[in-house]
Design brief:
The protein is an alpha+beta fold. It contains seven helices and 19 strands. Helix content is 20%, strand content 34%.
Length: 337
């Protein structure tokens, strides 16, 4: 068990490699109760969210969800989050655990008329069921087929189901009343899912090049630098950070978050390891791990834009020794067709 944003979280149960393989080949469950839940409602709530977030909340259909980002005036990332549209005038936002209080204060300080904001993070737990066999778990739990479409939102009982995840596999996330979370966890295990911890969560998401807030995303880097421009709707009239992003888009980002694959046997890659180009340090890793699926070290780092194209060779220094690596097209891991 380790401290994670003020929570005691399990690094592993049966072992990181075993849990990682389970999610890639069968089905695992992660306790994600540390995530925050904000409810936003009222006649002006969609327009208000659009003034604060990069994606287009007003265009989101009821019963659907999407990924979005909250920026500072410089275009840096405060937090990345999932926006769920529950009703025409009601949204649920799921935010990162370490950012709950900061996000809530930031949003409430910009509250406008016709909008109600509630931080109900303490009221809810959440489970993420992930893997090719997640549909079987869904049917056992709810007596119906799991929606094939990604980013669908269902209300079942006092909870919410959404077909999203952080592993690159099929699955769903189940937001439930906190008082019932332990019992629901047991139900998922009885249905056949294997418990998984933070270690497998990190290797799974890194193989898919999903960024981690506080590591790969920060107030000092923009969505354009992070390769998340797809989630920025520049057609919106205005949102916090838009002017800075427009300027960066015009000039082109000086840095880009690149995926790296180590070309030789090395110790595990960790965050903050120096990255060298032609003998000169140009970056440090933001995330790093040994990829169970690929059998080699993988990482991400903000490289100079000119050196961020696939095929570019660099070196990563580990324990005083440099190991060859190359920029790889995202994602690092791809399933066989």
């Amino acid at each position: 068990m380790v401290d994670f944003a003020g929570w005691e979280m399990p690094v592993q149960y049966s072992g990181i490699l075993d849990e990682h393989k389970t999610v890639r080949e069968a089905v695992g469950v992660f306790d994600i109760s540390h995530m925050g839940e904000f409810f936003v409602s009222g006649p002006a709530c969609a327009a208000w969210l659009d003034s604060l977030l990069t994606n287009n909340a007003a265009a989101l259909d009821v019963g659907h969800a999407h990924y979005s980002l909250m920026l500072n005036e410089r275009g840096g990332v405060i937090d990345d989050l999932i926006v769920y549209r529950l009703e025409a005038e009601e949204f649920l936002l799921v935010v990162n655990a370490a950012k709950i209080e900061e996000d809530a204060a930031w949003m409430k300080s910009r509250l406008s008329e016709g909008v109600t904001f509630e931080n109900r993070s303490a009221d809810f737990g959440a489970l993420a069921v992930q893997g090719p066999r997640s549909g079987e778990i869904f049917e056992k739990l709810f007596g119906q087929r799991m929606p094939r479409e990604r980013n669908r939102v269902l209300e079942i009982g006092d909870g919410f189901i959404v077909t999203t995840g952080y592993t690159g596999e099929k699955g769903f996330e189940w937001i439930i009343p906190a008082a019932e979370a332990a019992a629901f966890w047991d139900r998922v295990l009885v249905a056949g899912a294997k418990p998984c911890g933070l270690g497998a969560r990190d290797t799974l998401r890194l193989e898919m090049c999903y960024p981690l807030n506080g590591s790969d995303l920060s107030p000092d880097h923009s969505p354009l630098e992070a390769g998340l421009g797809f989630f920025v709707d520049f057609s919106k009239l205005s949102f916090v950070g838009k002017d800075a992003l427009l300027a960066q888009k015009k000039s082109g980002p000086a840095l880009r978050l690149a995926a790296l694959k180590v070309l030789e046997k090395s110790p595990p890659i960790r965050p903050h390891y120096p990255v060298f180009l032609d003998g000169i340090q140009v970056a440090e890793t933001t995330s790093g791990a040994l990829s169970p699926s690929l059998g080699c070290g993988i990482a991400m780092a903000y490289l100079p834009a000119a050196a961020s194209k696939p095929g570019q060779e660099v070196e990563i220094e580990v324990r005083g020794k440099k190991f060859r690596a190359c920029v790889h097209k995202k994602p690092l891991y791809q399933k066989d067709p």
